[in-house]
Amino acid sequence: MQIKEITDKKTWEDFATSYRPSSLLQSWAWGEFAKKEGREVIRVGLFNDEDLVGLALAIVVLSKRANYLEVHMGPMVDYSDITQFKYFHDYFTDLARQKKLHFFRFRPPMLHDDNKLKSFTKLGYKKAPMYFQAEHTYRLDVSKSEDELMKGMKKNTRYYVRKAQKVGVEISTSTDINDIEPFFDLYQKTVERQHFVPYDKKFFTDEFESFSKDNSVELFFAKYDDKVISTAMIVYYADTAYYHHGASIRLNPDVYASYLLQWEVIKRIRERGIKIYDFFGIAPTDDPNHPRAGLTKFKRGFGGERTRFMHTMDYPIDKLRYALVYAFVLLERKKRGL
Fold first, then answer.
1. Which sequence spans correspond to the domains of the chain?
2. What is the pTM of this model?
3. What's the mean pLDDT in 311-334?
4. Quick check: 109 and 26 in contact, CB under 8 A?
5. pLDDT tens, position by position, 47-101
6. Residue 108, preceding bond cis, omega within 30 degrees?
7. At what angle do helices 257-271 and 155-166 cross, to 10 degrees?
8. Contact 199, 256 (CB under 8 A)
9. CA separation for the pair 26, 56 (Å, rounded)
10. Count of alpha carbons within 13 angstroms of residue 224, beta-carbon side
11. CATH number of 136-308
12. One fold for 2-131+310-336 and 136-308
């Protein structure tokens, strides 16, 4: 077996979209998005003679605290044993050394499994100091009927959806990149209200542009009294749709626009023939004091199952630098109550 660079999009997507669980974080478009953000992207495949048996999209991350190589929801290989993964391990750790990076980070594309985790720690990996890229999420099977989906919601969520319909909340969709403008306007208002570290406008524009080339992204808007009060960016990939970004404001406490917006998203996903709706990141527990407790409660109301993917793993290259970064991140988590 050997690892080779892959430059053909069709070869990549044929494999990546058939792998389960699939992930937008290993899509060709995600690599294009990373390039627009100024990052180096590495696309490689594992070949058994001429047969492609594994893929990995890696991104070089350069930051103030550390420089590292990351592969989230990959490599996409057969994890029935560790053999195929070891080829990628050797390749990426050698590459990280060549580039003088501080560590290699990856999150395997599988549900959490303590035994599998141990097989990685035996290779020298350490659990990353915090959760990354929606390791905890809610996933809803939308292949059920609309009646079944409505019945699967929490009682209050059903009520809020119907209340929003009655008071005249209007839902629209867009695939026009110019509509990033109203999306970002509301996003900025959400940042002001919730005080989190924001992305800039270019980030959303780059992501939207990258996925729109495959008709795999849509913006949803909820209006009340001609004002946009809730939005969502939905990314479609393989068998899954992702609630990747959203924003909202509450001008009227009796107008539950975000609930109706999500219901219309669910119906749209069904129209596209996609099976799974991934609500993306939630709090790792149901602790009511967690900073994401409110968002988690909102997403949980639509039904589905809490899903925990494997924890992100780090392989230190520069052990001293990694130890310092690890300690710093733990301190930051404690300050933020995460």
1. 2-131+310-336, 136-308
2. 0.94
3. 92
4. yes
5. 999 999 999 999 999 998 999 999 999 999 999 999 999 999 999 999 999 999 9
6. no
7. 100
8. no
9. 7
10. 23
11. 3.40.630.30
12. yes
Cβ neighbors of 87 (< 8 A, separation 6 or more) are: 1, 2, 3, 46, 54
Question: What is the distance of C-alpha 161 from the center of its chain?
Answer: 25
Which string of b and e fits 316-336 if b means at least 16 CB within 10 Å?
bbbeebbeebbeebeeeeeee
Q: b vs e for 144-177, b when ≥16 Cβ sit within 10 Å of the residue's Cβ?
A: eeeeebbeebeeebbebbeebeeeebebeeeeee
- Residues 238, 60: Cα–Cα separation, whole Å: 25
Tokens of 288: 């009511």
Structure tokens at 129: 């100091």
Where helices occur in the chain by DSSP H, the ranges are 9-16, 28-36, 83-98, 114-121, 146-151, 155-166, 180-194, 201-212, 257-271, 293-300, 319-336
Query: 2-131+310-336 in CATH: which number?
Result: 3.40.630.30
